[in-house]
Amino acid sequence: MTQKKWVYVFNELDQASAYVGGSWDAVRGLLGGKGANLFEMYRIGLPVPPFFTVTTEACNAYLASGEKFPEGMWEQELDALHKIEEASGKKFGDPSNPLLVSCRSGAKFSMPGMMDTVLNIGLNDETVQGMIKLTNNPRFVYDSYRRLIMMFGAVVLGLPDEAFEEPMEAFKHQKGAKADTDLTAEDLKELSEIFKKVVRENKGFDFPQDPIEQLRLATEAVFKSWNGKRAIDYRRAEGIPDNLGTAVNIVTMVFGNMGWDSGTGVAFTRNPSTGERKVFGEYLLNAQGEDVVAGIRNTDPIEKMAETLPEAYNEFMKICEILEKHYRDMQDMEFTIERGKLWMLQTRNGKRTAKAAIKIAVDMANEGLISKEEAVMRVSTKQVDAMLHPQFDENARKAAKKEGRLFATGVNASPGAAVGQVFFDADTAEKKGKEEGLQVIMVRPFTKPDDVHGMLAAKGILTSEGGATSHAAVVARQFGVPCVVGASAIRIDLEKRQMKVGDVVVKEGDWISLDGATGEVFLGKLDLTVPNLEEQQDLLTLLNWADEIARLQVWANADYPKDARRARSYGAKGIGLCRTEHMFFEPERLPIVQRMILAETIEERKKALDELLPFQRSDFEGLFEAMDGYPVIIRLIDPPLHEFMPDEEKLFEEVITMRVKGETKGLAEKEKLLASIRAMHESNPMMGLRGVRLSIYMPEIVEMQVRAIFEAAANCTLRGVKVKPEVMIPLTGTVKELEWIQPRLERIAKQVMSEKGVNFPYKFGTMIEIPRAAVTAGEIARLAEFFSFGTNDLTQMTFGYSRDDAERNFLIKYVEEGILEKNPFQTLDREGVGRLMRMAVEEGRRTRPELEVGICGEHGGDPDSIEFCHLIGQNYVSCSPFRVPVARLAAAQAAIKNR
Amino acid sequence: MTQKKWVYVFNELDQASAYVGGSWDAVRGLLGGKGANLFEMYRIGLPVPPFFTVTTEACNAYLASGEKFPEGMWEQELDALHKIEEASGKKFGDPSNPLLVSCRSGAKFSMPGMMDTVLNIGLNDETVQGMIKLTNNPRFVYDSYRRLIMMFGAVVLGLPDEAFEEPMEAFKHQKGAKADTDLTAEDLKELSEIFKKVVRENKGFDFPQDPIEQLRLATEAVFKSWNGKRAIDYRRAEGIPDNLGTAVNIVTMVFGNMGWDSGTGVAFTRNPSTGERKVFGEYLLNAQGEDVVAGIRNTDPIEKMAETLPEAYNEFMKICEILEKHYRDMQDMEFTIERGKLWMLQTRNGKRTAKAAIKIAVDMANEGLISKEEAVMRVSTKQVDAMLHPQFDENARKAAKKEGRLFATGVNASPGAAVGQVFFDADTAEKKGKEEGLQVIMVRPFTKPDDVHGMLAAKGILTSEGGATSHAAVVARQFGVPCVVGASAIRIDLEKRQMKVGDVVVKEGDWISLDGATGEVFLGKLDLTVPNLEEQQDLLTLLNWADEIARLQVWANADYPKDARRARSYGAKGIGLCRTEHMFFEPERLPIVQRMILAETIEERKKALDELLPFQRSDFEGLFEAMDGYPVIIRLIDPPLHEFMPDEEKLFEEVITMRVKGETKGLAEKEKLLASIRAMHESNPMMGLRGVRLSIYMPEIVEMQVRAIFEAAANCTLRGVKVKPEVMIPLTGTVKELEWIQPRLERIAKQVMSEKGVNFPYKFGTMIEIPRAAVTAGEIARLAEFFSFGTNDLTQMTFGYSRDDAERNFLIKYVEEGILEKNPFQTLDREGVGRLMRMAVEEGRRTRPELEVGICGEHGGDPDSIEFCHLIGQNYVSCSPFRVPVARLAAAQAAIKNR
């Protein structure tokens, strides 16, 4: 039996690859991401300092066996050390020509902060002297030495940082040194001794002078760091499995500070902030890597290297091209030049801004480096989203936090940043915003439908109650208004017109800044940057590619013609949800609506409805015109009638007050109105008299609506507009509801078409938002020509969560405790709600193979949910206009991922 | 091709049977129930007047072809007529020896009132003379003749009754006759002429003198009556299919009024009211059947026939025995004796009271006439239910209605009759009922958990709001208190302490009587009859047989030891649901509960919980003792905390009033309490912070409860009681909730057992009442050792119906309009909710084959729902103690039906 191979030397990539079966992913799994890239660079002939890697399997074996190196590992590591001694011509522990190495962890996925690097392993009291001779720079060598002891002490031996920092401060004070740089070579030598004493006193043994012992301990420390608290927390947060383990990379140290023919730098193959196709980086002559990062000296742009180190520069430029072509992605590299010789220390796919990500993806596809599919996969939906909303300047955000201006944090309900003055009610917000032209942030404990006019006039919305699908959140997303909800630390005092967190008071008119993407609320103004879709040619190109690839269409939820126009300009191929009741809330219409509701006879009711008909008809004409050629799904009235009535509590207070004061004028009227509103009261309105139930209870309203829809469609047809109206019946729970209402409505549709003498295609269909509708979808599809999943309500009822309450009460705790992986109102619960959806699609299509299936809940704009919609074979997703670009990308990514 | 056979003569049963494939059910389908029994009686040699039957197929063919007799039918009918002429020795239309026949409809299922019988077909001006000679009774013959014309005119020719009644009244007036009996033979002859004139004037043709024409028209009329409005309405109401059609029975007339050796009667083979095994009936000498029914002369009990017509009597007694043995059920028969010769005119299974049904079933099984299974199937669950509740005397009910004392009608929420004085709040009701010993009917618009003490002290409950699963209804059923809810015509004025329907006022203290089985509310007192299970030996026997047969066990929902004892005495084999929160509402505990809820620190909360622990422990000890040897499922706290708090609206009113009046004393406290209550407010509490969510939010409460359960179980074990506690976690929606809470609770369980040094079997499980729980039951069963379907909530969420609102708002309309076949809160919706339940059982058992599955929702006491529970393989159903006997029978019937 051959012994298992635990250690791979720089030229053994093929063996590692063969061992794991050949895939690059598996190689990364065995050698870690950092290690794998070092091997790969070596393999394609790039200059990498001699190195070897101890595998993740060794780490796992070590941890599994109670922290013992697996059999043969250490011997293999020593063998590998000899091989890099040979390759480098140096010798570990040899005072005359010492080999120094770095020791770094490297897991399959990057885990920053898991463990610090230990540099300069191999230095001891003897090799220090050899290094001084080699470098002629005793200060650098002693500095390296004291750093090794400190880093080793902290990282490997587990001493607290203060154990070194306190004596160092004392020493500097004694020497009269302000900065570390004020210390001389002699001082640093002395400090090394002090640090050695720290180790001895704290650990009871000396800092190991034996380089081999240093290496062994460092290797073990890296292994152990896999189960350190920081690493575990990070894995939890990022969803990285615990069983991967980390590799250990041992790399020959090279020095950029060996004179003016030496240097070090970092660079990207393209500009990570703009995406421009030009190497972007910085370097320092006669310096070490940490000097570039620390910013002690001013770095030079990489271009300048062409003058100072032309040969190395040219070689590096070639390497950039090779690496980008090789990895087919923008690379982020570290390099060092030691006495004119270029060494590559790291390469990896570079992080980039949203803008750069899009430009690079599109450019690379145009250059033929990657396919359009790859380009589509290279950009995240978050990056596209970021391109559509104003954002805070990151430096401004950091500065504000430092200054203690973070006022509160809530649920990130609608992305985008907003700066404005605080107003505490809808009327004032509208007045200040529309009439006075102020930048308004509307602040409320929570919002209601009759607050919408104020919300529309605001740049941002902040509530102290409610969750991601509360009224405020839904409306805000719908209209693309940045919004933070449920910032529960805030106490709003509507009477005093102020809000407080602790002692910090924000009064009406004060400025705040809020970020709907992070949920942060700042005091005062933060600087904003504002992107614009039409000007973003690269993004438009990418989204067109996405449309070619996607199988799902993207439609939009839009209630008004202007929203429909925006949706269309963002690429929507239809309206998946027009909520007709929003039209009822407009100030000139609401009194008619209330009259209609309170009508005591059918005649009175019909009279009020006759007054509403022209309003609705003209709204619908606008929608049809905006969506010329595309389908428009109009949902019949859904909310319970009491939502259109004045606030019960306020009215009750007025009545009580009048009674106590003995005022009688108007009291009887108010009492009557109160009684009417109370008669409409429901214990659980979410599950009450609404949707199709209301239509069956009071069919006159939807009869008017269907007449308005078909009159509008007929008028548009006569004007040459191509209309495709689809009438959607909400809240169906049994096919018998459709059997009751749908034929009556279809009769009206046909009647209007015959009155107007026109013909156009139309559909009648239903929302699937009641669990029972999903369970009996096969029956429902007998009548319904289309399904639209109302996943907000479907999620509410499948989970039994009231969305108005749950996020505030227990959902946050549930997500924190891991009881729910994600907020199911933001990301579709595939296991529960999704299973019902899948049943509905399958059984609905069994009855009616051509059944059109979409989604119009909040989830229609969520990438993970969109993937699920793709998987169950929906025809489209519908989301708020501002989410359309994101959804287009997500639809394409879903198609590619699941080919 | 032989012609289809449309008509069967009395001796052709074998042919009919062969044609339909031999089953009795199919024979009834072809010949109708009445006809089939005539054939059967003939077949077994009983004396039946010669007859023939036109098939239901002929009826269907007639109706399908646009009211044309199918080919050959009429010829077959004339042939058949000849055959009965031969058999009877009489001749149709022969003045010297005329054959007269009756013509009756007879569908597969009895449809009373669908069509009247036409008797004496064959009488005309000529045959009248023959009949007079034969009978020597011209008055009888002319009376028969004028009746024929009248009946024929009304039933066959479609004339309104008044067309005959008005001229008859005028004629009687003219003759000075008060009653019909005052008319002489001569008068009746004259009246025949008048009636013939009525026909001529109204129809434009003469009353058909041709007997064949009479027969043809009567046959057609019976066919047409199948599609008459009355028949269609009846079929709708009874769920009889429209495509069955009716048969037509043509039977030779025999006459009981041909002298003192003739007579007629009706009889049952056993007493239909007590079930006593003795022929029960009445007869009249020298009379026709209608005389018995009309009550013009006093009938004699059947026994007397032994003296007056001993031969016929003996023959009839033999026939009774033959028929009962033959049909293996109690028979309801009509017979006529014509000149000493007994003729059987009808037999059918007799209707009977609940008491008789049970006695007859048990007796017949004991006699070996039927099997125990058949006995179990012979009694309906409604009959068993009727035996357990006080009931109004039916005559008293009829009288009260006649007197206009029916005050209102509502939903029949909890069966049983109650008589008492009205009180309008729980405290008064309790005081009057418990302290003063009055019979109390508690009346409220609706009830809440803190009304329970009043409800328990009441003999009956009446509400003007709410439906069959409102709080009032559920509690009433739970405690077997008769209850009518949602009597929406009633206006309750709590301030004036009165209620009104229109102008009728009932003041506090007035007497009313209500029937929870019919939903009726009467003014004043009605007489009651009160049954008692223990004394009903037959019922006990029947239920024991049911238990032997059933596969489902029947458990009970019981919160208190006394309920558990009752449940056990009613045959419950376990407690399927003990609602621990009911214990929290008791007056001495509620303040502690409120203190616990409002606690600002964990310590304060734990202190309050420590005070509650002994109460709960002693409650549980009582339960375990009562159920010694049987499992007891205890549900951990379920309702949202605000249910334990004072009424928000009332408090708000107090606060406003104090503010307006400028009163400050105690205001701050009230405001603080109001704020606390408001902070708990939820938009949809049904879907809010309750059940396991509350347990995760505030685990201290359930930790206390589990400790109380296990301490109680341990104490009981030490006293020699055999305990089987099962801890039920409510409202689970994801297995992760169980993963969070269950191990903590199991730890406490184990700890208590080890503290007490005892061991007993126990289980932890969950309710399945959230759709998502059903959909992910396979996962949930990893932790849950038992499932209990909470079908109230599961129905609410699967349908999206709030039970507090739906019945009041739209459910009644939905049932009326046929959108819902039945109220899904009363009878399980198999298609939707049931499908989820079936998934849950199948997938739960796939994970855990020994999973115990039950139901504890209201449906656990509903026979149709119990059948479904049987079908999906549940282990038990749990219902209110008072429903246990019903459920036991239903479980057995489900097993028999689905063998």
From TrEMBL, chains A, B:
InterPro entries hit by this protein: ATP_grasp_subdomain_1, PEP-util_enz_mobile_dom, PEP_util_AS, PEP_util_C, PEP_util_CS, Phosphohistidine_dom_sf, PPDK_AMP/ATP-bd, Pyruvate_phosphate_dikinase
Alphabetical keyword list: ATP-binding, Kinase, Magnesium, Metal-binding, Nucleotide-binding, Pyruvate, Transferase
The keyword Protein transport is annotated on this UniProt entry: no
Record Pfam families: PEP-utilizers, PEP-utilizers_C, PPDK_N
EC assignment: 2.7.9.1
The organism of origin for this protein: Anaerolinea thermophila (strain DSM 14523 / JCM 11388 / NBRC 100420 / UNI-1)
UniProt protein name: Pyruvate, phosphate dikinase
Catalytic reaction annotation: pyruvate + phosphate + ATP = phosphoenolpyruvate + AMP + diphosphate + H(+)
Cofactors: Mg(2+)
Family membership: Belongs to the PEP-utilizing enzyme family.
Pyruvate phosphate dikinase AMP/ATP-binding domain location: 30-66, 79-305, 313-366
GO molecular function: ATP binding; kinase activity; metal ion binding; pyruvate, phosphate dikinase activity
Active site positions, chain numbering: 471, 856
UniProt domain PEP-utilising enzyme mobile: residue ranges: 440-519
Residue span(s) of domain PEP-utilising enzyme C-terminal: 535-894
Binding positions for Mg(2+) per the UniProt entry: 769, 793
Binding site for substrate: 579, 635, 769, 790-793
Phylogenetic placement of the source organism: Bacteria, Bacillati, Chloroflexota, Anaerolineae, Anaerolineales
